[in-house]
Automatic annotation (TrEMBL):
<feature type="binding site">
    <location>
        <position position="147"/>
    </location>
    <ligand>
        <name>Zn(2+) 2</name>
    </ligand>
</feature>
<dbReference type="Pfam" id="PF12890">
    <property type="entry name" value="DHOase"/>
</dbReference>
<dbReference type="GO" id="GO:0004151">
    <property type="term" value="F:dihydroorotase activity"/>
</dbReference>
<feature type="active site">
    <location>
        <position position="306"/>
    </location>
</feature>
<keyword id="KW-0479">Metal-binding</keyword>
<feature type="binding site">
    <location>
        <begin position="324"/>
        <end position="325"/>
    </location>
    <ligand>
        <name>substrate</name>
    </ligand>
</feature>
<keyword id="KW-0665">Pyrimidine biosynthesis</keyword>
<comment type="similarity">
    <text>Belongs to the metallo-dependent hydrolases superfamily. DHOase family. Class I DHOase subfamily.</text>
</comment>
<feature type="binding site">
    <location>
        <begin position="57"/>
        <end position="59"/>
    </location>
    <ligand>
        <name>substrate</name>
    </ligand>
</feature>
<dbReference type="InterPro" id="IPR011059">
    <property type="entry name" value="Metal-dep_hydrolase_composite"/>
</dbReference>
<dbReference type="GO" id="GO:0005737">
    <property type="term" value="C:cytoplasm"/>
</dbReference>
<feature type="binding site">
    <location>
        <position position="310"/>
    </location>
    <ligand>
        <name>substrate</name>
    </ligand>
</feature>
<feature type="binding site">
    <location>
        <position position="57"/>
    </location>
    <ligand>
        <name>Zn(2+) 1</name>
    </ligand>
</feature>
<dbReference type="InterPro" id="IPR032466">
    <property type="entry name" value="Metal_Hydrolase"/>
</dbReference>
<dbReference type="InterPro" id="IPR024403">
    <property type="entry name" value="DHOase_cat"/>
</dbReference>
<feature type="binding site">
    <location>
        <position position="306"/>
    </location>
    <ligand>
        <name>Zn(2+) 1</name>
    </ligand>
</feature>
<comment type="pathway">
    <text>Pyrimidine metabolism; UMP biosynthesis via de novo pathway; (S)-dihydroorotate from bicarbonate: step 3/3.</text>
</comment>
Length: 426
């Protein structure tokens, strides 16, 4: 039994408390206290449902020097995540039931965050032959995607949506037109021209989203079941507008945004620091503000990290050669709690929803609210500020574009089904 005393509760339904939360048998037993062997003083803190990350790269199998299941899932629980969807663009890609099952079994044995593997939409992520969706789902896959590569053949994407629809599996897309993106390493525009760097235009994202929405319309017309399209790491104002219009028209589309696109802009690239090199690239301030509006009005369904660890040696290469990606599992919530809620008045209820019920809805999972009888997969968050120190990360990628930023809202206790998997109480 665990008793968290005098703690405020926050979930998608709102805030309440302080209350005394009694946890046992893997669930919340009472909100009115009780006897427990372990008592935690929650004064000044708030308790939320455990977070779910729709989009993380754990690099296993094949690139364990960058990250592995243990380091990645430990980073996850330190970040308040009780559930995580791993991307399949590993070496080799996760494109068979056996590969999905192996990841699930190894993650379960670790006893940290619960792993929900995404499987490749096409064999070897080559964009040609569809993978066996039904068998992948039976093995534990919750999502189909060729993330890391763009789906160039619209016919293959349509067939994938039609195949996944009766299974209730979402198909997630990396929405960038390869022909427009080319070799861009930053947002295309005056700043890229000034710095002499190849640009990746906002139109590359918008053009691909527009096409994929038309493919979704086709699949919706052809399928007796409902195909579901999920747009990953949306980064532009125009892309957001397209998704908003599609939702208003009733299309079954969802979308996510990342912590880096919500807190950083292309201006960071003036330093030529590859730490800020991501795909899609950091955009302009107008795009960032549009994304914030999309969080508020429901166009964006979830905040997903796109946690992308690399070795420090790789990220210290020059901007043209360094890989794309930022590690963010351990700082995502504190970053947005501070930059959005504290500094801009973004509603805390909605912020928590974007980390919990929002991503759960994308996967077709029921909401997880704080009430008696609910599964005790929870995170205790401390509003006290401390600086970002990547040297203390559990992730193998011990670097961060937010190094030194003073943030509040740090996870100090994470529970999965009532088990403590992370504890950093003072």
């Amino acid at each position: 039994m665990i008793l968290i005393r005098n703690v405020r509760l926050v979930d998608a339904m709102g805030e309440r408390g302080p209350l005394d939360v009694l946890i046992g048998e893997g669930r919340i037993l009472s909100l009115e206290g009780g006897e427990a062997k372990q008592v935690v003083d929650g004064t000044g803190c708030f308790l939320a449902p455990g977070f779910l990350d729709l989009h993380a790269h754990l690099r296993e199998p094949g690139e364990e020097v960058k990250e592995d299941l243990f380091s990645g899932l430990l980073a996850a629980v330190r970040g308040g995540y009780t559930d995580l969807v791993s991307m399949p663009n590993t070496k080799p890609p996760v494109d068979t039931p056996e590969a999905v099952r192996a990841l699930k079994e190894k993650a379960k044995a670790l006893g940290l965050a619960r792993l929900h593997p995404a499987a490749a939409l096409t064999e070897k992520q080559e964009g040609k032959t569809l993978t066996p969706a039904g068998l992948l789902q039976e093995a534990g896959a919750v999502l189909l995607t060729d993330d890391g590569r763009t789906n160039e053949d619209a016919g293959v994407l349509a067939a994938g949506l039609l195949m996944a629809a009766p299974l209730g599996l979402p198909v997630a897309v990396h929405a960038e037109d390869a022909g427009l993106r080319r070799n861009g390493v930053m947002n295309d525009g005056p700043l890229a021209d000034l710095l002499g760097l190849p640009g990746n235009p906002t139109e590359a994202e918008a053009a691909r989203i527009a096409r994929d929405l038309e493919v979704l319309r086709y699949a919706l017309r052809r399928s007796p079941a409902t195909p579901r399209l999920h747009v990953q790491h949306l980064s532009t104002k125009r892309g957001l507008e397209l998704v908003r219009e599609a939702k208003r028209a009733g299309l079954p589309v969802t979308a996510e945004a990342t912590p880096h696109h919500l807190t950083l802009t292309e201006e960071a690239l003036r330093t030529f620091d590859p730490l800020f090199k991501v795909a899609p690239p950091l955009r302009g301030e107008e795009d960032r503000e549009a994304l914030l509006e999309g969080l508020l009005d429901g166009t964006l369904d979830a905040i997903a990290t796109d946690h992308a660890p690399h070795t420090l040696a790789e990220k210290e290469m020059d901007l043209l050669r360094a890989p794309f990606g930022i590690p963010s599992l351990e700082v995502a919530f504190p970053l947005l709690y501070t930059e959005l809620h504290l500094k801009r008045g973004f509603p805390l209820r909605r912020l928590v929803e974007l980390f919990t019920d929002g991503p759960r809805r994308v996967l077709g999972l029921p909401p997880l609210h704080l009430e008696e009888g609910t599964e005790a997969s929870l995170v205790l968050l401390d509003p006290k500020e401390r600086p970002v120190d990547p040297q203390g990360f559990a992730s193998k990628a011990r670097f961060s574009p937010w190094t030194g930023w003073r943030l509040g809202g740090w996870p100090v206790l994470t529970l999965v089904e009532g088990r403590i998997v992370h504890e950093a109480l003072e």
